[in-house]
Write a structure and sequence with these properties.
The chain is 45% helix and 5% strand. The protein has 438 residues and is mainly alpha-helical. It binds (2R)-2-(alpha-D-glucopyranosyloxy)-3-hydroxypropanoic acid (9WN).
């Protein structure tokens, strides 16, 4: 379907502009999220980028995912950053000399030839692989795309479901806010408050050279990010011992959606998908049991070190709407929360804010503390459509490309005004806008 209110030529020019962003950010084997702020390959960015790229070049979309999966560690983890060796060390912090993957990560099977970070990001990859396959099954079969990706994706899920089941309830935990992808979400304020920050002056932020300081995480946040990552590195990237461990609803919902995609991939390859589908159903039940909070009408994060659910309402708690096997009362409550005063969708906001509009920590410009991001709106568009909520799904389907184009493909926008924040020419914004134009 076309974009309501947008003429054919306007829509064509929006597509062409989005394609130009992705062409400018393509390095030859993968796409950087942003030439200025993020000059390497990021894990969940690449999955979202591939979903859009499949409409421009299924070959590039396959290559994007293959480049990422080639950097997988022996223990199955897919690193959150794959570093480009031709980019100067001071262009992004933390750089490869901080993570020291090939030495500190040796016991966990880090690759020798490519430098990576040692943490992970949300597992959107199997879903992306499946969508990319479907865009051009003939090319995919000719290249053995699924057959090569499948064992890597299976090992990735195995890592998350075994090494990362730190709470023992079946769900995967994140051990760093960067892993969940919503770095400075107010959900992390309490668990992070227990982490002593790395001393001032012991590291140098590169992000402040590109982004406005008031739109980025604070120095105190960074001190804590650095401490947590350094502790993990110094423990050889072994799981289980860190001071931060959280079960996050979006991370687990994406794992479940990807497990369902993996079932379809298995079937396409001639193997049964039943065990994976059953696992997805079990994980959905565990998600509801461990993270659903009826009084808030949404999922919350579980803090394994402090104990209990974290009270903050982040957009992450709405993302499980993606899952078709969610109980009906949970779906109904999620849709009401999304459209109610805390997220305001279709009333005060056209895209989904990253955090509770009524929350004490709400800030319309500061990164994951309020601004609307395009990937979460894309996920919720899918979720609404999955559950037959056609009218709000159609509205999001129109708003994502419109605001992406109007903001210069911004990294994130003010949820009330649509004003661009962070980097412009941001890859997943362009990719997901393109996807919704198809
Ligand atoms: C740390 C690349 C990434 C996204 C994350 C976003 C931001 C990095 C940073 O940029 O995080 O991984 O330096 O702030 O929060 O979701 O994947 O676009």
């Amino acid at each position: 379907p076309g974009l309501p209110g947008l003429s054919g030529p306007a829509e064509a020019s929006l597509r062409a502009r989005a394609a130009r962003v992705l062409a400018a950010n393509w390095t030859g084997s993968s796409t950087v999220p942003s030439r200025s702020l993020y000059p390497h390959q990021w894990s969940w960015d690449s999955a979202f980028v591939a979903v859009g790229l499949r409409h421009l070049s299924p070959l590039r979309a396959q290559t994007e995912l293959e480049t990422l999966l080639a950097a997988q560690w022996g223990d199955g983890r897919v690193p959150h950053i794959v570093f480009n060796p031709s980019v100067p060390l001071d262009a992004y912090f933390p750089s490869p000399d901080f993570w020291r993957s090939s030495t500190a990560g040796r016991a966990a099977g880090a690759p020798r030839t490519v430098q990576t970070s040692g943490i992970v990001q949300p597992p959107v990859h199997a879903l992306a692989v499946w969508l990319v396959h479907r865009a051009d099954p003939v090319l995919s079969r000719a290249r053995g795309f699924l057959a090569r990706a499948y064992p890597r994706l299976a090992a990735w899920h195995r890592y998350l479901l075994h090494r990362r089941d730190l709470g023992g309830g079946g769900l995967a935990s994140v051990v760093h806010p960067w892993e969940q992808g919503m770095d400075n979400s107010p959900c992390w304020d309490l668990p992070l408050s227990r982490i002593p920050p790395a001393p001032d002056g012991s590291f140098r932020r590169a992000d402040l050279g590109h982004g406005a300081a008031e739109d980025r995480p604070t120095d105190l946040d960074y001190g804590r990010y650095v401490r947590l990552a350094a502790d993990y590195r110094d423990a050889g990237y072994a799981d289980g011992g860190g001071d931060f461990a959280v079960e996050d609803p979006a991370f687990n919902a994406l794992l479940i959606a990807s497990e369902r995609a993996l079932a379809r991939i298995a079937e396409e390859l001639g193997a049964p998908g039943t065990a994976r589908r059953a696992r997805a159903a079990r994980l959905t039940a565990a998600l509801v049991e461990r993270l659903w909070e009826p009084a808030s009408g949404m999922f919350l994060c579980r803090d394994l070190r402090g104990g209990g659910l974290l009270p903050e309402r982040g957009v992450s708690g709405l993302v499980p709407l993606l899952l078709p096997e969610l109980p009906g009362d949970v779906v109904g409550a999620l849709v009401r929360t999304l459209r109610g005063p805390h997220f305001g969708l279709g009333r005060s906001t056209a895209l989904v804010p990253s955090y509770d509009l009524l929350g004490e920590a709400f800030d319309p410009h500061r990164y994951w503390r309020g601004p609307a991001w395009f990937n979460t709106s894309w996920l919720l568009e899918r979720g609404l459509r999955t559950h037959g909520e056609r009218e709000p799904a159609d509205a999001l389907r129109a708003a994502v490309p419109a605001l992406a184009g109007a903001s210069g493909f911004a990294e994130y926008v003010d949820p009330y005004t649509g004003e661009a924040c962070g980097a412009t020419g941001f890859s997943w914004t362009a990719a997901l806008a393109l996807d919704l134009l198809h």
